[in-house]
Structures are given as structure tokens and as C-alpha cells.
Amino acid sequence: MIWLPPSAFVSPEFLIRAATERWELTGAASLRRRVFVEEQRLFTGHDRDEIDQLALPLVAISTLAAEPAEVVGTVRIHEPSPGIWWGSRLAVAEDHRRVGRLGAELIRLAVSTATGRGAREFHAHVQIQNVPLFRRLHWQVIDEVMLHDAPHAHMLASLSHYPPIPDPAIGWSARASARRR
Questions:
Q1: 135 DSSP 8-state letter
Q2: Where are the alpha helices (DSSP H) in 1-158?
Q3: pLDDT, position 176
Q4: In the chain, N or C terminus with fewer CB closer than 10 Å?
Q5: CB–CB of 118/84 below 8 Å?
């Protein structure tokens, strides 16, 4: 038997869906804390704010033997005014970033969910290093802003590229597509 450290295994399949169970919500909050507080140091203590009370959390869940195992990606969406939606706090666990598509799948679920709920616009403040990903996914830069002492781009999604999803809790499964480091 060959022993591999836990970080060497990356699930070949992921569930992309709205967080509905307590463990999914807890996992999303924990992941956000690891990424935005511990790793990026954008916040001190926690990254929660008033938007969390309104937002719909979406998650990417790794599987083990075809069963949901761990939240490895998350984003939240909310509608501050009718038809105007925002996505924020997109995070993928460090050891799953090499999967190469979890961020894109979460963005697709976020915008398609909002489209299914009547979105006329979908916005996000995107960290500068992530702008190329969003551009590939049919987003455009509207402005550049500083948030939490870090440069961000205010971006707008092209909704025509995101078919409506009526029930994000159903979601879908995505296969891993490992990319080079």
C-alpha cells in the first residue's frame, strides 16, 4: 500500500450547487475565513458583513466515493435592488485551485441563478489577479476600485452567456480538469 499525504488527493468530481445544509454553510464560512483572513489578510478575525444576511451562498463540494465530502469553493450572491445582482467572496481552497475550473463553475452558477431570478445586471468587485478569468467568462471591466486596501475591478457579466437556472440547489457535477501549476 502506498501512503499519500491528504493534500496529494484531489477528488475527480465536484458538486456545484446552492448551500442548503448546515455543514455546507459552515464549510463555506470556514473556507472564506481561510482564504480572506488567514491567506490574503484582507480582513482581521472574520470576513462576515451585513450582506451575509441577504446572500445566497453557493458551493463547490468535493466528493469521496461519489458522496459529498468537503466544501472546497464558495461564492455568495445577492440582489440589493430589483434586477441588480452582485456576486462576492469567491474563494477556492488553495489545494483545489489546480483543479482549474471550480472558480469558473461557481461564477456560472452565480450568474445563471441570478438570471433565473430575473437579473437585468450582474456585478462583482474582482481582485485584479482574477480579471483574466472573468474576461474569459464574458465579463467586462467597468471601473477600477480599491477595496480592503487591495486593487479590484468593478466588472459586469454579459447575461446572454448565462442561461437561467431555476433551482440552484439542484446544481450539477463537474469533473476535475487538472491544470499545470
A1: H
A2: 22-32, 102-116, 131-136
A3: 75
A4: N
A5: no
Is residue 178 within 8 A of residue 100, CB to CB? The reply is yes
Query: What is d(CA 50, CA 106) in angstroms, rounded to the nearest whole number?
Result: 22
Residues 59, 74 contacting (CB under 8 angstroms)? yes
- Rounded CA-CA distance 167/62 in Å is 20
Distance, in Å, from the CA atom of 35 to the CA atom of 29, rounded to the nearest integer, reads: 10
Please report which confidence band the pLDDT of residue 4 belongs to, taking 50, 70 and 90 as the band edges: very low
Q: What's the pLDDT tens digit per position in 115-129?
A: 999 999 999 999 999
Using one digit for the tens of pLDDT, what is the confidence trace for 78-120?
Answer: 999 999 999 999 999 998 887 768 999 999 999 999 999 999 9
| DSSP 8-state assignment for residue 162 | S
Looking up cell 473556507 gives: 31
What's the grid cell of residue 36?
Answer: 480572506
Q: How far is CA 156 from the centre of its chain?
A: 16
Phi, psi of 162 (to 5 degrees): -130, 95
H or E segment to which residue 49 belongs: none
- The vertex-64 CA angle with 15 and 59, nearest 5°, equals 25
Return the H-helix or E-strand segment holding 77: strand 67-81
Cβ contact 93:139 at 8 Å: no
